[in-house]
Write a structure and sequence with these properties.
alpha+beta, seven-stranded antiparallel beta sheet, six-stranded antiparallel beta sheet, 16 helices, 23 strands, glutamine amidotransferase, PurF_N, iron-sulfur
Length: about 500
């Protein structure tokens, strides 16, 4: 098949889902406005969603109202200085969004705020409900009006329903959350704000990430590590408790990663600390199903999942790839930037020099309207410039983290050949993507995925490369599990690679 026969008008990469950030000030108070810290937290999660951003704050009193600011666009453009001043509070939650369900417009910006029997609640959601259409019809039949096209609003409405056990002693939010979890098993990480507390929830499969952090006093930030580099004991005092999709966002504000929210766990966060209220078991005792592509592509390399750093997993993917598919070349390079750790370890394992061959323009956004055929044909040349002196006349292997439609890789190979590469070999630090995802990641349809269009042994011809090889699924699993603690419960969703879905989609 000719490369030109594949659609090149749309983005060729995977699309992120959403990012959550919540904070509750402790008794000691914070030496900076809480809304500034939430804004900073969302900036650290910007890679998870670039369509819109929202923040909701409250003073946390029994009758306090919520202050809300939402806008389309990136975090730094969505909130003005006046917005940050207006967003006063002792607790708050924020959200960055990329739509997997629902249109990309202002009505779908999260967090959602609704009135419940016990007052206002604000809800932020990362994931995608496998039975969204079923739930929508059920709510409509019960007379519930919906104002958005987002499946996240369905969760918000479900949380307003009184639990079957009733509420004889006042609000029973654990019961309400359990009811919601029984209505839909996946996929969600949630932040729910009510009065003076935040509830942090992961679905029982743990498909989407969520972790807890601790904001340290300002004078403790500089002594978090000893001169030898070992982490010192955390101070007992905390200025705030944080819940976020990724731990990478903690560093910029002087916070420390504490632990992940466990699969199925309902965690209550107040000014007094963090309490695990219960863990909802998985149906039929299935293993957890944390999205393995968080390690491969989505997460920032300085984040921690399951007790290990993402960058370490990506390095192990590179080492495993080198063992499975070595290349006889002069140098190793990468498609910037998430594949860089894998490429450097690939080079080190085979004792081949590592050099950059592509310079990425980080300021090129998505181009929704292409003004001419000339600009359309430029393709990746708008995003990458060849570092010709580093590879002219040499044989090179270029490492990518994943290949979706294949259009970008074909254009990159052509760019490198035209700039003087003698040979271009392609290695991919993950298995072929063959199946769509319906649990919170926007993966194209089966018919758009290049690994389904042509056989793997014809991939090199399609890309114009000298060879193309992927990391095996077993190799990826080995790289991910190697860093886990002995006896740690673990399990990963590989549906987009294997077709083995942990939960059936009920709305197909």
């Amino acid at each position: 098949m000719e490369l030109s026969s594949i659609d090149t008008t749309s983005e060729s990469g995977l699309r992120e889902e959403c990012g959550l950030f919540g904070m509750v000030a402790a008794n000691s108070g914070i030496d900076i406005t809480l809304s500034h810290l939430i804004h900073l937290g969302l900036v650290g999660l910007q890679h998870r969603g670039q369509e819109s951003a929202g923040i909701v704050t409250s003073m946390g009193g029994p009758n306090d109202t919520f202050v809300t600011r939402k806008a389309m666009g990136l975090v730094n453009g969505a909130f003005s200085d006046d917005d940050i001043v207006i967003l006063k509070g002792n607790l708050g939650i924020g959200h960055v969004r990329y739509s997997t369900q629902g249109l990309s417009n202002a009505s779908n910006i999260q967090p959602f705020v609704v009135e419940s029997l016990h007052g206002l609640i604000a809800v932020a959601h990362n994931g995608e409900l496998v039975n969204a259409m079923h739930l929508k019809q059920k709510l409509l039949r019960h007379g519930v009006g919906l104002s958005t096209s987002s499946d996240s609003e369905l969760i918000t409405q479900l949380l307003t329903h009184t639990p079957d056990c009733g509420e004889p002693n006042g609000a029973n939010w654990v019961g309400r959350i359990k009811n919601m979890m029984q209505e839909t098993v996946a996929s969600y990480s949630l932040l729910i704000m009510h009065k003076d507390r935040i509830w942090a929830v992961r679905d029982s499969y743990g498909n989407r990430p969520l972790c807890i952090g601790k904001l340290l006093p300002a004078d403790a930030v500089t002594v978090m590590r000893s001169p030898s580099g070992n982490r010192l004991a955390l101070p007992d005092e905390s200025e705030a408790w944080i819940v976020a999709s990724e731990s990478c966002t903690f560093h910029a504000m002087g916070a420390e990663y504490v632990r992940d929210v466990l699969p199925g766990e309902i965690v209550e966060v107040t000014k007094n600390g963090v309490i695990s209220r219960c863990i909802v078991p998985r149906p039929e005792a299935h293993p957890p199903a944390f999205c393995i592509f968080e390690y491969v592509y989505f997460a920032r390399p300085d984040s921690r999942f399951e007790g290990q750093m993402v960058a370490s997993v990506r390095r192990r993917c590179g080492r495993q790839l080198a063992l499975e598919w070595p290349a006889d070349v002069d140098l190793v390079s990468t498609v910037p930037e998430s594949a860089t750790p894998a490429a450097m370890e690939y080079a080190a394992t085979l004792n081949i020099p590592y050099r950059e061959v592509l310079c990425k323009n980080r300021y090129v956004g998505r181009t929704f309207i292409q003004p001419s055929a000339r600009l359309r044909k430029l393709g990746v040349a708008k995003k990458f410039g060849p570092l010709v002196d580093n590879f002219y006349g040499k044989r090179l292997v270029i490492i990518d983290d994943s290949i979706v439609r294949g259009t970008t890789m074909g254009q990159l190979v052509a760019l490198l050949r035209k700039a003087g590469a003698k040979e271009v070999h392609v290695r991919v630090a993950s298995p072929p993507i063959k199946y769509p995802c319906y649990m919170g990641i926007n993966i194209p349809t089966k018919e758009e995925l290049v690994a389904n269009i042509i056989p793997l042994n014809e991939m090199a011809k399609l890309f114009g490369a000298d060879s193309v090889h992927y990391l095996s699924l077993e190799g990826l699993k080995k790289a991910v599990t190697e860093g886990l603690k002995e006896g740690q419960e673990t399990g990963h969703c590989t549906a987009c690679l294997s077709g083995d879905y942990p939960v059936k989609k009920l709305d197909w």
